[in-house]
């Protein structure tokens, strides 16, 4: 990896850490960059997952104030994320690499659709809440339906990960009676659990490019803090446009290869 290639990976890590903290789908920034450097899809995905773990931790810490009083909710939903993330990582290793190469373009397109639809989902959540009383402390609300949804999102996140944050925010926004910033804090912790358990699993069974891991890790830590502090001020249409353009470039590269 040349100096310029390393710089590109580092900057992609910053962008991914920022976007993941705000809404999710940062993988659609880093994964295409790793593909462009010539990494095989599975190695790129595994290395990306490991590299984003410190960024997920950074984002969760940045939202620690919003997590106050949510211990019970985190324990319940975190269990679903733990199980789902492990299952998704196991599927990535179990299925042949050619299958991943064939499935990923579809997953990226699904993630891009979720990113594009995110504003509509947010408006739907706001409309559902209009006129309702949602106190800052909220209620636990983590019933069987939400637990199952979080578990399935964990399977998706452990296998690939792009836009799992969008899925989590949509589900919790619809099913939990609480402030969206507090829900976003929970989303960051759940994404951390999924990425973390998948990363530990991959350490023992999957190919890893450690240079890419370190560069993404450093960049995503900085991006996680940036997203928690000033990311809310960034124009959402700009973020979504960047994600869509990079994601489409990744799909094009995968299909051509």
Describe the protein in words:
The protein has helices at 3-22, 27-36, 41-62, 71-94, 97-129, 144-159, 164-175, 180-205, 210-229, 236-256. It contains 10 helices and no strands. The chain is globular. With 257 residues, it is mostly helical.
List keywords for this structure.
single chain; 257 residues; mainly alpha; 10 helices; globular
The rough form would be described as globular
Number of β-strand runs = 0
Residue share in helices? over 70%
Q: Gap between N and C termini, in Å?
A: 21 Å
Radius of gyration: 17 Å
- Low-confidence parts: none
User: What percentage of amino acids are in beta strands?
Assistant: under 5%
Which structural category fits the helices and strands?
mainly alpha
Return the string of H and E elements.
Answer: HHHHHHHHHH
Mean pLDDT comes to 82
Q: Helices, strands, pairings?
A:
Elements: H1 3-22, H2 27-36, H3 41-62, H4 71-94, H5 97-129, H6 144-159, H7 164-175, H8 180-205, H9 210-229, H10 236-256
Short structural description:
This protein is mainly α. The protein has helices at residues 3-22, 27-36, 41-62, 71-94, 97-129, 144-159, 164-175, 180-205, 210-229, 236-256.
């Amino acid at each position: 990896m040349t100096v310029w290639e390393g710089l590109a990976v580092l900057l992609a890590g910053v962008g991914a850490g920022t976007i993941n903290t705000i809404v999710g789908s940062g993988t659609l920034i880093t994964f295409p960059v790793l593909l462009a450097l010539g990494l095989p899809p599975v190695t790129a995905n595994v290395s990306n997952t490991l590299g984003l773990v410190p960024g997920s931790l950074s984002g969760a810490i940045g939202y620690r104030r919003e997590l106050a009083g949510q211990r019970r909710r985190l324990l319940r939903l975190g269990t679903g994320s733990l199980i789902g993330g492990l299952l998704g990582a196991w599927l990535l290793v179990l299925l042949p690499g050619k299958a991943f190469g064939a499935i990923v373009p579809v997953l990226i397109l699904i993630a891009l659709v979720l990113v594009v639809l995110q504003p509509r989902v947010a408006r739907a959540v706001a409309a559902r809440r209009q006129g309702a009383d949602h106190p800052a402390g909220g209620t636990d609300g983590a019933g069987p339906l939400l637990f199952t949804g979080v578990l399935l999102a964990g399977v998706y996140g452990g296998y690939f990960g792009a836009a799992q944050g969008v899925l989590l925010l949509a589900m919790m926004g619809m099913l939990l009676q609480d402030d969206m910033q507090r829900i976003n804090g929970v989303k960051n912790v759940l994404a951390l659990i999924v990425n973390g358990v998948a990363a530990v699993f991959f350490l023992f069974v999957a190919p890893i490019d450690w240079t890419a891991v370190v560069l993404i890790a450093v960049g995503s830590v900085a991006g996680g803090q940036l997203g928690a502090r000033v990311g809310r001020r960034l124009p959402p249409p700009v973020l979504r446009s960047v994600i869509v353009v990079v994601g489409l470039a990744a799909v094009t590269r995968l299909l051509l290869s």
